[in-house]
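Render this sequence as a predicted structure.
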Amino acid sequence: MPSKKVLALKVLILLMIMILIYLRIMPELQAPQPVSPPRSYEVTNVRFREEKSQFHQSQRQLVKVNSVFTIVPDLPHNLNVLLIINTIPLETERRNILRQTWARQSSWRLESQSSFPDSGDIVDIGYFFMVGFHGYPCIDQSVEAESQIHRDILRVNLTESYRGLINKVLLTFEWVTNFDTKPRFIVKADHDIYVKIPELATWLLITPTSMKVYAGFVNRNTHVIRAIQSPWYVSKEDYSEEFFPPYCGGPFYIFSQNLFLHVMNASKVIKPFAVEDAYMAVLVKKMGVEPHDSGRYLVNWDRTLNDEVLKTPEDKIKIPSGVVLGDSISSVAIKLIHRVYMRG
């Protein structure tokens, strides 16, 4: 029989071998285990997080340059009329339709005494789109790419929302007040209307230079909504009256420059509330100015027009009277209206 010393030696050798094996395999046991490839939606989520992170980093850099406007348009100098078109990031197709129809930099010669005696009776009209942020990086980055092509977008550093519209508009108007050229008329328009630009120029023709103009489709005796769940909710703290003053509807209204600057000054002391068009009337009222009511001659507000146009053969479409048509007009209907209107 082997001696006790031999057995002890064998046990010692065995223990040493086991220790060596343990030390060899432990790093492999502790290493991360391979996993199955991620599913496609997991890859998308990772990419989204990466894009979001990169976007916010780039956005922080933009904010350092300009904390309010992250994209600004190129505009002609010496404009008489400036059209500011409210839109949202997703509506790329709509903006392209408007660029092809009524939203263009243009000049119109007027044939009698006009509001533009210093310009040889030529009305120079410019435009730009005001947008906010969508919140999804790919969409917001596509707006940047679009702006590089057309140079006609002003992006406000706000996330789009209906109740945030008033801040979007006020910030945009503030940018206009700092614009080198001071247009004689500033127009705010929504992207779902049609503007007969030659007739707008003609309408401005008959406006006296000294007149303080606040014009559009005038709403009267409008109750203030106090139901907190409504998008048009206004608290008594923000506006205590039971009725809004007469106001021009948000889809289209005009300010003359000599009123516009006073309105912007008033906005710095009167707290804004979420009903953008009614708030503008509160500012105008402080200036002692009443909205100019030209009935449907200026704004023919008819939300049935879209359906009428779409169901009517193009050669049978009748263009209603009024400088401005809408609102709630689709892209297809805008193209049809424009073709018929331009054929005269």
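Summary. Residues 4-30 form the longest helix (27 residues). The CA atoms of residues 54 and 137 lie 9 Å apart.
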